[in-house]
Amino acid sequence: MALDEAIAVARSKNLVPNTLRFFRWKPSAVSIGYFQGMDEEVDTAACDSKGIDYVRRRTGGGAVYHDRDGELTYSMFINLEHRLVSKDFQETYGTLCSGLVSGLRFLGIQAEFKPINDIVVGGKKVSGNAQTRGMNVVHQHGTVLLEVDPSLMFAVLKVPNEKIRDKLIKSVEERVTSLHGLLKREVSFDELKEALVKGFEASFKITLAQGALTEFEEQRAAELKTEKYARRGWNFKR
Amino acid sequence: MFLVSRRNRAEVGKAQYKVEGGKLIKVQLRNEAEKIEYVKITGDFFLHPEELIDELEKTLEGSEINEGVIAGQIKAFIKKHKAVLLGATPEDFAKCIVMAGEKSD
Questions:
Q1: Alpha-carbon distance A61 to A68, whole Å?
Q2: What is the ipTM of this complex?
Q3: 3.30.390.50, 3.20.20.10, 3.40.50.1460, 3.30.70.1150: which CATH number matches B13-103?
Q4: Of the four listed, A14, A50, A62, A207, which is most buried by Cβ atoms within 10 Å?
């Protein structure tokens, strides 16, 4: 999350071009939206005992369990004046998510964008997304599920009471899907990344060029991690 | 020598409201008579600029716990700051705040 903000800063200073980043969470982690309360949403003791991190995002939206092996996360950083960006947040969600929809379709998955910020297949959610703007940059990030483990999700996300845990697990099984669930085969991170790159290029009518993090981004990410994202004051603010 | 009797602090009332086709709003509220003394609004909605949430909560302090009044204040706040709210409306927030008010004190 510190690196995400660092790239946004770098983009705002024109030190880097519009950027698409792919990453995995190492270790697995829970992220909560800007407006959520960590203690309301996350069983931090359970996370501690399982070696799972927890962090508050700079974007709104919900609590997400990011499994190291089960999920690919992307982040996009686009200048506010770009043709893909509209003043209308909802419209921009649709436009930017179209790259993911296109990418998943390259894998043979009939994905569709579902407002406000989801991508679904046959009505089941396979991707959630969140967007913020600042410093003249649109920052949107989101997840694509390769695998889903509802039991583990609700071992780390708070549930109102124990009786409801099984109901919630069942509800996720009905409302959420994954690439493994849809294609009935393993999909590697590389295969998914390649498909998504193709999808973004086709949908956005752009060409993506492989790059590397700059020294500025690495340095700023380290500072943001220490000063913000590793701090209780930020993560437990609400 | 004076004895000062203090009224016990009102309980914090809590409520949750799932917006149809939208997001989940959670409110914690403490009231003083019929007015908001303290309110915290959490949830998985989107508000932009994000930092405005603190100021919105402060703005609502002292407001009458009435759906129409609160919704009107939130709308005015959003207009003043050219803010964007997604996944919930000012009316949804107001409804949840009043629900929490019914549970406090």
A1: 20
A2: 0.95
A3: 3.30.390.50
A4: A62
pLDDT tens string B40-61: 999 999 999 999 999 999 999 9
Hey, is the C-beta of B93 within 8 angstroms of any chain A C-beta?
Answer: no
Report the chain A residue with the minimal C-alpha distance to residue B16. Answer: A160
CA quadruple B44, B47, B53, B57: dihedral sign: negative
Q: What CA–CA distance (Å, rounded) separates A56 from B42?
A: 13
**Contact by Cβ (8 Å): A177, A150:** no
pLDDT, tens digit (0-9, with 9 covering 90-100), for B2-28: 444 444 456 899 999 999 988 999 999
The CA-based dihedral angle spanning residues B93, B96, B97, B98, taken in that order and rounded to the nearest 10 degrees: 130
- The whole-model pTM stands at 0.94
Q: Do A60 and B41 touch (CB under 8 A)?
A: no
CA distance A44 to A72: 23
Cβ B50–A60 below 8 Å, yes or no? yes
Cβ under 8 Å to A: B residues 39-58 = 40-50, 53
